[in-house]
Every structure is written in C-alpha cells, then in structure tokens.
Amino acid sequence: MKGFAINSIYKFGITILVISLFVGCKPLSDFFKKGKKEKVEDIVKKGEPKGVVLLKVNGEVANESDFNEYLNQMLQMNPYFRGATAESLPAPLKENFFNEYKKRIEILAYQKKQKVYEESDFIADYKKMCGLVKDSLLIQRFEKNVYDKISVDDSEIKKYFENNKKDKFKKEDESVSILAIKYKDSKIADEFYDSVKGKGKEEFEKISNKEKDGEFKDFGRVAKEQKGMEVNNVPKSVKDKAFKLRRFPSIEKIKVGKNVWVACFSDKRDVEYFELDEIKPQIEAMLRRNKVRDELMKQIEIIEKELNIYVNEGYFKEKKQMLPPGVKIKTKEEVEAEKKGKKESSAVSI
Question: Residue ranges of the domains in the chain?
C-alpha cells in the first residue's frame, strides 16, 4: 500500500509538471539543484525583451530569449533530445521547433483577443489548475528536502558494479560469425562438406556461392544471448554448436530434422564488459534514486504518525452482486446433478 502511495506521488508530480511547457516556468531539474535562492518575484518577472525579435502578434513581441527558453523546455521533455540545448541544435531543426512555437503564440493571441480568460468555465479551470500547481510544488519541496540529503560514495558504486558486472554491464555478448548451407540430401551434404573441410571463411563462401543443390545462408554475427527484437533465424542446433567449439574458424556438419547443415563458424568474440569509469555516473544516479525512494517511504511513515488519517478500506473491496428476485446462481454440484438426472431420464425413455 505504501509502495503504491510513493508511485502515485511520482506520477502525480510528473503529470502536473507538464504545465512547465508554458514559457517562463522552471523545469523540474531546477528545483533539485542546490545554489542561490531566488525570490518569487525574480522568477516571474519578465523584464525587458532580450535578443532578436523573432515574432510579433497583435503587438506582443516574442524574442530570441523567449523562444530559446521554450525550446530548452521542449528538449528536456523529449527523451530523444535529452542533454541537447537550444544553442546546440542545427538551424533547420531549430526552425521546425519555431514553427510549432509560432502556432502556440498565435493561439494564445487569438484566445486573448476573444477574451476567453473572462469566461466563467475558463476561470474555474484556471483556479483548479492553480490548485494543482500549488499541490505539485508542495510535494516537490517535500521530495527536494529528501533528495538534497542523499549522497552516494565511491565505495557503494564500486561494490554495486562488481556484484552486478556479469549480469547487468555487458557491452558486447559472446558472438560468432556463421555462414551455412542447408541440404535436403545428406549424401550431397557429405560431398560438399568434404570439399570445404579445413578451409577458411572466404573459401567456404566462395565455394558455397557456386553450389546449386543447397540453400546458402549468411547469418552474420550471432550473439549467444538474443536481445529484444533481434532475429537471426539460426537453427538452435547450429547455434548451440557454434558456442561449444574451441577452434576457429571451424567447418561442421549438423543434422537438423530431415535437413543437414554445413556451417562455417569464424571470428569468435568473447563477452566484453563496461569499465566502471564508463558507467559510473549512471550507477550513481540509479543508486541515488533508490535511496531517495526508500527514504521517501520512511519519511511518509513518519508523517503518517503526525496526521489524523481515515481510509475507507471498504470502498475498494469487491461488492456482492445483487441478483433479481427469484434468480439463484447454481453451484457446480447442482449443475452436475442436473446433467446426471437428464442422462438417466433419457436412458429410461429409450
């Protein structure tokens, strides 16, 4: 139940922070950065326009700094552009973002011209949104107080890396290059095997390309453990043989069902692992997230003791289905008894 509460808080905070798409709002990462405290009036004060004027709509100016701030927020929200900045984007891509930004400014100008902000339902939605933003900021402040006190030292990072290196930190899996040719006739397969036995990969491929009786397959580099959507269609017996061999290149004959495969195994590569320095920041971030999660759960348990809490536990319990008068749900035994009775009645009538 408490784990569910933590996840709900995270999801709630993330949902509300979509509001940061509005130009001028600060992204979540800024709340988690230590440094000089800013006054609220300094944060929301627009100040004089900065940079080149990019757009004017009904007298309102959108300048370069406005657009770059909007663009940086878009980049932070999109995982494909994580780490990029407005300054680092090429001009054509930046222009695509600007076209979307222009539409946004035009819609805002039109809505202001129509005085939508004076409509009662808009005012109600606005007040509701302000309440959600306030709640989100309060939760962020609580999380920030926990986050700022959490640290991860080098010994923890090293220990985690060493304990999980083989399972979680493979750079490249063990792999072998496989060329093979499939025969339906075992005698022809034997003849071909004798002609290529002891030869290298290039000679095997050259001879295979001239072969008309078999079906040639270049499986490429085949990893011992298949990842995600990777598909190479290597017969299991052929693949198993590849990783049992100790000498490369090697040409082997493998029986698979009614067919015979003659395969050339070459260029064996051993498993390669990441070095600690290559992934240290990621491990540190992961360990810190785990610590923050655990500490948040502890802090919630503490504050629950200070609060007067009522939970309607019965609300989520499955309610008994109310049946119409005279309707009864039959048990399994009653159904079986009816079937038995019908069979006996049928036997008597015959």
Answer: 12-142, 154-163+274-304, 173-224+233-272
